[in-house]
Fold:
Amino acid sequence: MNIITGNRNFLFLKYRLKKLLRFLINQEKLNTFGDGENQINKVFIINLDRQKERWRLIQEELTRIKIPNKNTLLSFTERFSAIDAKNQSIKTNKINSSYTLEDQYFVDPNPELLNIIREKEIIIDLTKQEIAVALSHLSIWDKIIDENIHSGLILEDDIYFENKFSNKLNSLWKEIVESKIEFDIIYLSYKKVEHAPDLTRISNNLSIPNRGIWWLSGYILSNKGARKLQEKLPITGPVDLWINHKFNELDVYTCNDSIISQKLFITSDNNYSILPILSQIGIKSNKTFIDLDKLKGRNPVFMFDLSSNKSNLLKLEILLSLNSYRTHFMKSDRELDHIKNLINRKETLLFDAYIGFNSLIEMIPSLISFYPNVIIIILSKDNDSIPQACSSYIGKNIFCVNPKRNITKEVSKLLKIKNWDLDSDDILKINPEINEKVIQISIPNDYKYLEHDVTPWILPIENIKKYLPYDFNKNEIIPIAKHVENRIDYFEEFDVNFWGILEDTFPSNQSRFSKENFSLSSELDSGFQLEITNSVQGEKKYSSSSIVSIEKFIHGSFEISMKPIKGEGIVSAFFLHRNDPWQEIDIEFLGHDTTKILLNVYYNPGIVNTKYNFGLRGTPVLIDLGFDASEDFHDYRIEWEYHEIRWYVDNEIIHVRKAWMPTPIPNLPMVVYVNAWITNSEELAGKFEESLLPKTSFIRYIKMYNFDYTKN
Structure:
């Protein structure tokens, strides 16, 4: 498994530096290769036919390793034409097509996996590339047996030999021969897993792995070992994972340090089956997640400010979020009690930063004992606020930052993260304590969470129950603000000072918005209609309609009375949105099934003009309405407060999102949109057919209320 998480440019520079150092280091001739039983007989290079440049480069690498009689390692080398997942149909009974998350946990016991494994068995399907890689290795094992080769060095074509490779392999092999060590496999190249690799060092050259190493990019395999591996087929899971499960049945050794490395700066063709699974539980993800996760510095972090002014902590929360920390900002005593219980039970912390949980200062010794890498930041001019029992940790785990200084600069330096210039005027001032009065509600509607984005600002759905203090067996709301300053617009005329009509489009829209497709209602006494037609608009074959508010809103109640379009491929929507950073709260009707409503939230952190616009699908949930929305008018409402979002249909609540369920709550001003359009995604709303047109969405009115927190 070769999942690259480092900066490729840095890895390439590191490789070039090693190449330069070769000229300065005395390299012995390699004396381990030959035709005898006490020698390595052959080198096998796994190389795809279409990767000719890699074959050329690996030949250069092999030519650099000198052996006696003026030969090079290339003279012992045979190229093996790798199984190509792109060009070949792969059918085999020697490899199981799936494995379990528990198989992964055995090799890399990440504590975040444990509760998932306990809840249910998760089956993972191998990718075609993983099957092809396993078959390539297996074919070479067959060759070693069929050709009665005593032992062979098997290499993938993206490796290079470390400095003093020959010296170290000579020393290792001398120990193997003189000590008469019977081996099946010797790893010359490997990467330890992140969590608790289990290797026992037995000499200056060798260790015995019990489990916990990745890669099969460079290893010596004996004839005896090849036969044993054949007997243990089929392979279950990626081949390097599967062999870990067989270590207790094999004579396996590793060199104490890898003497063959992979060119990690090379883009790999492989797709890894584990990544989508791990991304959904928040551990690893796609390239976007990995790139964002690199921004994160030292963690976990606990931040305390013992003054009553929370503005500094709010600023630091934004700073950490922009550096891809999952931040949990305390808003209620219930949250505090929940976090205390997690710490007392020595549970793994899901969040990277806990901000404002001031009474946890008393638990600093426990925090440091269980989380030795924890960073505790106290906003204070001096160390007087630090408990005496913790004085020995000052400067190591505990740091005071003077709140009168440039705190973002100080904290960025301390955590080794990028500093952002955050003006206090950009920080949202509304942050009252949550009223502990909780209202229990009944929500009878069936719902289903759909596939969602994975970024550092989205929690895995599976983990919410454990890491947030909400009772999922009960629905509850905590309304705080009062509705004031209402605007009710019946659209008896169009207010150009408040609304604009769009004339643009976006990539996933098959239509273009046009003024001609908007009209005040001709069928009703009030309201308006949005029409979709087959008239060509610019580069688009169809035209549609959208209006947007000129005014921006920060929190409030937003209600529409509408009759959306029923029709495959068509979306009718009412939502709040902003870019830089992208945040959004949606109500959408999908034309292929208007008995359901799609609710969605997009979140990216930052202040106004922060160009964080990550995500494709948001965090959607599909809810059964119990009626067909296209047949009559119904009222749909979004209530957006700083701590939760509530959605209503005909004044009955149907869904609630609290902070980190599964995103933070959008916290920047947004405008209001109403539109109807044709989606490119058949998966989203069905396959569009032109014969459906024209189609019209009808709106009777829009009501908007600001929220006043001073009247709480």
Notes: The CA atoms of residues 59 and 570 lie 56 Å apart. Residues 128-146 form the longest helix (19 residues). The mean pLDDT is 87. The radius of gyration is 31 Å.
